[in-house]
Structure to design on (188 residues):
């Protein structure tokens, strides 16, 4: 007979190894896989560059001057792929404690307001990021030689993508009118 800790460990493994897009449609799966490929590619490139530079520095007494700059310029792309996917999959960090204290009949309206506020803030951040790219994106990075807009444009794409993902979820929930069930656990 399994003890409680073994059951919890088994359930945790099952949850962690489950396909996060199991119930998603074909287009959603394709979009998510494409963004995953971008994120994993950036992560692999960062790891390879860091380890190659570290090995070269300590084993060969030679350091690649561009390595740190390339890693720094790639980090926003890695972060934004994560933000985009977490919004699309509904795994963004949220605080349910206060939401659950609100009367059940008010929760859908507050949830709708939360969606709209998230969309507004993310699109605003995308616009500010785009203005930043237009102002400073043409500056050339010292060692890599790429325009700094390569790095900062990740913020534009990430924020706009996350806003569109929130909008898609908002419109889906609005059409299905299942917000009460989704947020309060109540049945329709």
């Amino acid at each position: 007979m399994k003890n409680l800790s073994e059951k919890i460990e088994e359930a945790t493994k099952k949850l962690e190894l489950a396909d996060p897009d199991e119930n998603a449609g074909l287009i959603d799966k394709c979009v998510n896989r494409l963004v995953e490929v971008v994120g994993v590619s950036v992560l692999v490139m960062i790891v390879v560059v860091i380890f190659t530079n570290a090995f070269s520095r300590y084993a060969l007494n030679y350091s690649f001057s561009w390595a740190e700059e390339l890693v720094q310029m790639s980090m926003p792309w890695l972060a934004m792929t994560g933000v985009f996917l977490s919004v699309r999959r509904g795994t963004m960090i949220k605080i349910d404690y206060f939401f659950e204290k609100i009367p059940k009949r008010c929760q859908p309206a507050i949830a709708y307001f939360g969606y709209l506020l998230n969309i507004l803030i993310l699109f605003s951040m995308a616009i500010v990021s785009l203005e930043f790219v237009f102002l400073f994106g043409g500056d050339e990075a010292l060692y890599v030689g790429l325009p700094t807009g390569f790095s900062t444009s990740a913020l534009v794409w990430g924020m706009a993508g996350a806003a569109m993902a929130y909008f898609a979820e908002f419109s889906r929930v609005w059409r299905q009118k299942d917000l009460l069930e989704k947020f309060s656990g109540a049945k329709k």
Q: What stands out?
A: The helical segments are 4-17, 26-59, 67-88, 96-101, 107-136, 149-176, 179-184. The chain has a mean pLDDT of 87. Residues 90 and 134 are 32 Å apart (CA to CA). DSSP finds seven helices and no strands in the chain.
